[in-house]
Amino acid sequence: MHSFLTRKGQGSVATAEPKLSEIYLGYIACLNRQDWSSLRHFVTDNVQYNDKPLRLGGYLNMLKAYCEEIPDVYFEVRTLITSPPLVASRLVFNCAPANRLLGLPVRGKRISFSENAFYLFNGEKIEQIWSVMDKMAIEAQL
Amino acid sequence: MHSFLTRKGQGSVATAEPKLSEIYLGYIACLNRQDWSSLRHFVTDNVQYNDKPLRLGGYLNMLKAYCEEIPDVYFEVRTLITSPPLVASRLVFNCAPANRLLGLPVRGKRISFSENAFYLFNGEKIEQIWSVMDKMAIEAQL
Description:
Two copies of one chain form a homodimer. Chain A has helices at residues 3-10, 20-33, 55-69, 135-141, and strands at 43-49, 76-83, 86-95, 100-101, 104-105, 111-122, 125-133. Chain A is an alpha+beta fold.
Protein backbone atom coordinates (compact mmCIF):
# COMPACT_ATOMS: atom_id res chain seq x y z
CA MET A 1 0.00 0.00 0.00
CA HIS A 2 2.50 2.60 1.16
CA SER A 3 5.70 2.39 -0.78
CA PHE A 4 7.72 3.28 2.32
CA LEU A 5 6.54 0.10 3.99
CA THR A 6 7.85 -1.91 1.08
CA ARG A 7 11.12 -0.08 1.23
CA LYS A 8 11.43 -0.70 4.92
CA GLY A 9 10.96 -4.38 4.20
CA GLN A 10 13.78 -4.18 1.68
CA GLY A 11 16.12 -2.91 4.35
CA SER A 12 17.29 0.15 2.44
CA VAL A 13 16.53 2.44 5.31
CA ALA A 14 18.55 1.42 8.29
CA THR A 15 21.76 3.22 7.35
CA ALA A 16 19.93 6.51 6.91
CA GLU A 17 18.04 6.36 10.17
CA PRO A 18 20.43 8.05 12.57
CA LYS A 19 20.79 11.22 10.57
CA LEU A 20 17.87 11.86 8.27
CA SER A 21 17.21 15.25 9.86
CA GLU A 22 20.86 16.24 9.32
CA ILE A 23 20.73 15.11 5.71
CA TYR A 24 17.49 17.03 5.18
CA LEU A 25 18.93 20.20 6.70
CA GLY A 26 21.96 19.76 4.45
CA TYR A 27 19.58 19.61 1.49
CA ILE A 28 17.89 22.84 2.61
CA ALA A 29 21.29 24.51 3.07
CA CYS A 30 22.16 23.40 -0.47
CA LEU A 31 18.99 25.08 -1.76
CA ASN A 32 19.73 28.26 0.19
CA ARG A 33 23.25 28.39 -1.30
CA GLN A 34 21.68 27.70 -4.71
CA ASP A 35 24.47 25.18 -5.01
CA TRP A 36 22.88 23.41 -7.93
CA SER A 37 25.84 21.17 -8.68
CA SER A 38 25.45 19.55 -5.24
CA LEU A 39 21.74 18.80 -5.58
CA ARG A 40 22.53 15.30 -6.86
CA HIS A 41 24.00 14.44 -3.45
CA PHE A 42 20.56 14.92 -1.89
CA VAL A 43 18.11 13.88 -4.61
CA THR A 44 17.97 10.66 -6.65
CA ASP A 45 18.01 10.62 -10.44
CA ASN A 46 14.45 9.26 -10.38
CA VAL A 47 12.92 11.88 -8.11
CA GLN A 48 9.17 12.37 -8.37
CA TYR A 49 7.40 15.59 -7.36
CA ASN A 50 3.71 15.28 -6.52
CA ASP A 51 3.69 11.95 -8.35
CA LYS A 52 5.20 13.48 -11.51
CA PRO A 53 8.43 11.77 -12.65
CA LEU A 54 10.48 14.96 -12.96
CA ARG A 55 13.83 13.20 -12.53
CA LEU A 56 16.80 15.16 -11.21
CA GLY A 57 17.06 17.45 -14.23
CA GLY A 58 13.40 18.42 -14.15
CA TYR A 59 13.44 19.03 -10.44
CA LEU A 60 16.57 21.14 -10.77
CA ASN A 61 14.89 23.26 -13.44
CA MET A 62 11.85 23.71 -11.22
CA LEU A 63 14.00 24.84 -8.30
CA LYS A 64 16.01 27.23 -10.46
CA ALA A 65 12.83 28.79 -11.86
CA TYR A 66 11.43 29.19 -8.33
CA CYS A 67 14.59 30.91 -7.14
CA GLU A 68 14.56 33.22 -10.17
CA GLU A 69 10.97 34.23 -9.43
CA ILE A 70 11.97 35.10 -5.84
CA PRO A 71 15.23 37.11 -5.81
CA ASP A 72 15.43 37.04 -1.99
CA VAL A 73 14.29 33.45 -1.59
CA TYR A 74 15.19 31.70 1.68
CA PHE A 75 13.99 28.24 2.69
CA GLU A 76 13.25 28.35 6.42
CA VAL A 77 12.43 25.07 8.15
CA ARG A 78 9.82 25.89 10.78
CA THR A 79 8.85 22.34 11.78
CA LEU A 80 10.66 19.11 10.97
CA ILE A 81 9.57 15.55 11.74
CA THR A 82 11.57 12.55 10.66
CA SER A 83 10.54 8.92 10.70
CA PRO A 84 12.86 7.10 8.30
CA PRO A 85 12.41 6.78 5.41
CA LEU A 86 9.96 9.68 5.71
CA VAL A 87 10.49 13.36 6.50
CA ALA A 88 7.78 15.98 6.96
CA SER A 89 8.79 19.61 6.84
CA ARG A 90 6.92 22.87 7.19
CA LEU A 91 8.83 25.52 5.30
CA VAL A 92 8.06 29.21 5.67
CA PHE A 93 8.92 31.87 3.11
CA ASN A 94 9.09 35.60 3.78
CA CYS A 95 9.97 37.12 0.45
CA ALA A 96 9.21 39.55 -2.35
CA PRO A 97 8.66 37.66 -5.63
CA ALA A 98 9.67 39.90 -8.51
CA ASN A 99 6.65 39.35 -10.71
CA ARG A 100 4.31 36.34 -10.65
CA LEU A 101 4.35 33.41 -8.23
CA LEU A 102 2.11 30.33 -8.53
CA GLY A 103 0.25 32.26 -11.22
CA LEU A 104 -0.45 35.22 -8.93
CA PRO A 105 0.64 38.79 -9.73
CA VAL A 106 2.76 39.48 -6.64
CA ARG A 107 4.95 42.09 -8.39
CA GLY A 108 7.49 42.78 -5.66
CA LYS A 109 5.09 42.85 -2.71
CA ARG A 110 6.49 41.29 0.46
CA ILE A 111 4.53 38.17 1.34
CA SER A 112 4.69 35.28 3.77
CA PHE A 113 3.47 31.78 3.09
CA SER A 114 4.22 28.19 3.94
CA GLU A 115 4.93 24.97 2.09
CA ASN A 116 4.03 21.72 3.79
CA ALA A 117 6.05 18.89 2.30
CA PHE A 118 6.58 15.18 2.78
CA TYR A 119 9.70 13.43 1.49
CA LEU A 120 10.38 9.75 0.96
CA PHE A 121 14.08 8.92 1.10
CA ASN A 122 15.79 6.08 -0.69
CA GLY A 123 18.85 5.60 1.45
CA GLU A 124 20.32 9.07 1.97
CA LYS A 125 18.58 10.72 -1.00
CA ILE A 126 15.13 12.13 -1.63
CA GLU A 127 13.15 10.03 -4.10
CA GLN A 128 9.62 11.35 -3.71
CA ILE A 129 8.25 14.73 -2.67
CA TRP A 130 4.61 15.50 -1.93
CA SER A 131 4.41 19.22 -1.43
CA VAL A 132 1.63 21.78 -1.12
CA MET A 133 2.29 25.52 -1.33
CA ASP A 134 -0.17 27.82 0.44
CA LYS A 135 -1.47 29.68 -2.60
CA MET A 136 -4.55 30.82 -0.67
CA ALA A 137 -2.34 32.56 1.90
CA ILE A 138 -0.67 34.51 -0.92
CA GLU A 139 -4.02 35.40 -2.49
CA ALA A 140 -5.15 36.79 0.87
CA GLN A 141 -2.12 39.10 0.97
CA LEU A 142 -2.54 40.64 -2.49
CA MET B 1 11.39 29.59 18.96
CA HIS B 2 9.32 26.46 18.32
CA SER B 3 6.43 26.23 20.71
CA PHE B 4 6.67 22.44 20.73
CA LEU B 5 10.11 22.63 22.25
CA THR B 6 8.74 24.70 25.10
CA ARG B 7 5.92 22.26 25.58
CA LYS B 8 8.28 19.35 25.65
CA GLY B 9 10.20 21.15 28.39
CA GLN B 10 6.99 21.53 30.33
CA GLY B 11 6.50 17.79 30.35
CA SER B 12 2.96 17.86 29.01
CA VAL B 13 3.76 15.37 26.30
CA ALA B 14 4.91 12.16 27.85
CA THR B 15 1.48 10.64 28.47
CA ALA B 16 0.47 11.09 24.83
CA GLU B 17 3.61 9.60 23.38
CA PRO B 18 2.73 5.91 23.13
CA LYS B 19 -0.42 6.43 21.13
CA LEU B 20 -0.47 9.71 19.27
CA SER B 21 -1.05 7.95 15.95
CA GLU B 22 -4.02 6.09 17.43
CA ILE B 23 -5.46 9.28 18.84
CA TYR B 24 -5.00 11.03 15.51
CA LEU B 25 -6.70 8.20 13.60
CA GLY B 26 -9.53 8.40 16.14
CA TYR B 27 -9.85 12.10 15.32
CA ILE B 28 -10.01 11.32 11.59
CA ALA B 29 -12.63 8.62 12.21
CA CYS B 30 -14.62 11.21 14.19
CA LEU B 31 -14.50 13.57 11.19
CA ASN B 32 -15.55 10.79 8.82
CA ARG B 33 -18.53 9.96 11.04
CA GLN B 34 -19.25 13.71 11.21
CA ASP B 35 -19.64 13.04 14.90
CA TRP B 36 -19.47 16.69 15.83
CA SER B 37 -20.38 16.20 19.49
CA SER B 38 -17.20 14.13 19.95
CA LEU B 39 -14.84 16.66 18.39
CA ARG B 40 -14.09 18.13 21.83
CA HIS B 41 -12.43 14.85 22.82
CA PHE B 42 -9.78 15.42 20.13
CA VAL B 43 -9.40 19.20 19.95
CA THR B 44 -8.73 21.71 22.73
CA ASP B 45 -11.00 24.69 23.40
CA ASN B 46 -8.15 26.98 22.34
CA VAL B 47 -7.37 25.38 19.01
CA GLN B 48 -5.63 27.55 16.42
CA TYR B 49 -5.82 26.91 12.68
CA ASN B 50 -3.02 28.39 10.59
CA ASP B 51 -2.23 30.70 13.50
CA LYS B 52 -5.82 31.95 13.71
CA PRO B 53 -7.42 31.49 17.16
CA LEU B 54 -10.57 29.76 15.92
CA ARG B 55 -11.27 28.01 19.21
CA LEU B 56 -13.29 24.80 19.24
CA GLY B 57 -16.52 26.45 18.08
CA GLY B 58 -14.90 28.18 15.14
CA TYR B 59 -13.06 25.07 14.06
CA LEU B 60 -16.26 23.03 14.32
CA ASN B 61 -18.06 25.53 12.09
CA MET B 62 -15.21 25.37 9.58
CA LEU B 63 -15.36 21.57 9.47
CA LYS B 64 -19.15 21.53 9.14
CA ALA B 65 -19.01 24.00 6.26
CA TYR B 66 -16.33 21.90 4.53
CA CYS B 67 -18.42 18.74 4.86
CA GLU B 68 -21.49 20.56 3.53
CA GLU B 69 -19.54 21.73 0.48
CA ILE B 70 -18.48 18.11 -0.20
CA PRO B 71 -21.47 15.74 0.15
CA ASP B 72 -19.27 12.64 -0.31
CA VAL B 73 -16.36 13.89 1.78
CA TYR B 74 -13.96 11.28 3.16
CA PHE B 75 -10.73 12.04 5.00
CA GLU B 76 -8.15 9.48 3.86
CA VAL B 77 -4.82 9.43 5.67
CA ARG B 78 -2.20 8.60 3.05
CA THR B 79 0.94 9.28 5.10
CA LEU B 80 1.24 9.74 8.85
CA ILE B 81 4.30 10.66 10.88
CA THR B 82 4.19 11.17 14.63
CA SER B 83 6.85 12.66 16.84
CA PRO B 84 5.10 13.74 20.04
CA PRO B 85 3.81 16.35 20.50
CA LEU B 86 3.78 16.73 16.71
CA VAL B 87 1.89 14.86 14.01
CA ALA B 88 2.26 15.33 10.26
CA SER B 89 -0.42 13.91 8.01
CA ARG B 90 -0.95 13.84 4.29
CA LEU B 91 -4.67 13.57 3.64
CA VAL B 92 -6.08 12.76 0.22
CA PHE B 93 -9.59 13.60 -0.95
CA ASN B 94 -11.38 12.01 -3.89
CA CYS B 95 -14.72 13.76 -4.01
CA ALA B 96 -17.31 15.75 -5.92
CA PRO B 97 -17.87 19.12 -4.22
CA ALA B 98 -21.41 20.25 -4.90
CA ASN B 99 -20.67 23.82 -5.91
CA ARG B 100 -17.61 25.86 -4.95
CA LEU B 101 -14.55 24.70 -3.02
CA LEU B 102 -11.71 26.98 -1.88
CA GLY B 103 -13.31 29.63 -4.06
CA LEU B 104 -13.21 27.47 -7.17
CA PRO B 105 -16.33 26.56 -9.22
CA VAL B 106 -16.08 22.77 -8.99
CA ARG B 107 -19.86 22.23 -9.45
CA GLY B 108 -20.08 18.49 -8.96
CA LYS B 109 -16.98 17.49 -10.90
CA ARG B 110 -15.03 14.61 -9.36
CA ILE B 111 -11.62 15.83 -8.22
CA SER B 112 -8.66 14.56 -6.26
CA PHE B 113 -6.40 16.69 -4.11
CA SER B 114 -4.31 16.52 -0.99
CA GLU B 115 -4.02 18.42 2.28
CA ASN B 116 -0.66 18.42 4.03
CA ALA B 117 -1.13 19.20 7.70
CA PHE B 118 0.92 19.49 10.86
CA TYR B 119 -0.67 19.21 14.29
CA LEU B 120 0.67 20.20 17.69
CA PHE B 121 -0.91 18.24 20.51
CA ASN B 122 -1.38 19.44 24.07
CA GLY B 123 -1.59 16.15 25.92
CA GLU B 124 -4.08 14.03 23.97
CA LYS B 125 -5.76 16.91 22.12
CA ILE B 126 -4.93 18.98 19.06
CA GLU B 127 -4.09 22.57 19.94
CA GLN B 128 -2.55 23.89 16.73
CA ILE B 129 -3.04 22.96 13.09
CA TRP B 130 -0.92 24.22 10.20
CA SER B 131 -2.60 22.98 7.07
CA VAL B 132 -2.23 23.61 3.35
CA MET B 133 -4.84 22.45 0.83
CA ASP B 134 -3.65 21.84 -2.72
CA LYS B 135 -5.75 24.47 -4.45
CA MET B 136 -3.47 24.38 -7.51
CA ALA B 137 -4.20 20.67 -7.99
CA ILE B 138 -7.92 21.45 -8.05
CA GLU B 139 -7.42 24.35 -10.49
CA ALA B 140 -5.55 21.97 -12.81
CA GLN B 141 -8.53 19.58 -12.85
CA LEU B 142 -11.21 22.17 -13.73
